[in-house]
Amino acid sequence: MEKKPEFVDRSQVYRTTYARNSKAIGVLWGVFTLCFAIIDVVVFVQPQWMGDTQSSKGTGQFGLWQKCIPNEGGGEPTCTGKLDDFNSFLNMPAIISTVFAGLSMVLVLLCIICMLLFFFCKSSTVFHICGWMQVFSAVCLLVGILVFPVSWDSPEVREVCGPSARIYNLGECGLRWAFFLAVIGVFDAVVLAALALILATRTLKPQVQPEPIYVSNGSVYKGQMNPGFVGDAGSMAGSRKSLNLQPVMLMPHPDHDSYSEFSHHTARSKNSAYRAQYASSVQNFQL
After folding, report:
1. How many other CB atoms sit within 10 Å of the CB of residue 16?
2. Which domains are present in the chain?
3. Residue 142 CA to chain centroid, in angstroms?
4. What is the pLDDT of residues 114-125, one digit of tens each?
């Protein structure tokens, strides 16, 4: 048995495919946003932004707000530093770098909370909100990364990295994995923000099909035409046939009682004392 060919509207197929793909991309966007939040938190709390190498003068490692250096008596490095005590920071650039990195972390956590708005608001609105949050989060993290090397001009850093350590110069130390993870986080946030803004603007709008227009005898009609009920001489207004007929109004005669038009006239009924003269009970008025 041969299969009958099926005719499918290409625009409908495109809309269905796009809706399916956009949902899949939206799910991936949410997953990678969660990954970026984890990266941001790890970068903020880990004291592994820079540290000693084999050629370093001393032993130690530094983060945004923590420093891990050995005690005066030697031994394993001890990490010190508190977020609520600015005196424990290396210097003012370290405080500024910590503040901006903290703002970046707070923004991405708020972005994850805003994902709950998908159940109450339009997806385009939520993508707009989260996209701009990710933009500001990436900017704040980038500022923290750029300001952090300014904090290397401090006595604690020179004790570990040597006297050549200064602004944007590590001396005998080297960068650690947390610094590179922060750089990756910036690029991740930029890509996620761009993807969110694209998903916010590329929403499907309901497609309105225009009504067909028919022209007959110089007249224009809109609506659906059923040609099975229309002849060549008839015009269409919707699905009703328009005929060239004048309307007629039927009015009863005002002076006589009405009676059946189908009753027969007889001599007896005509001469009856109880009946008036016969006349047409209905008058036709043509408008």
Report:
1. 12
2. 10-201 (1.20.140.150), 210-245 (no CATH), 248-287 (no CATH)
3. 26
4. 999 888 888 889
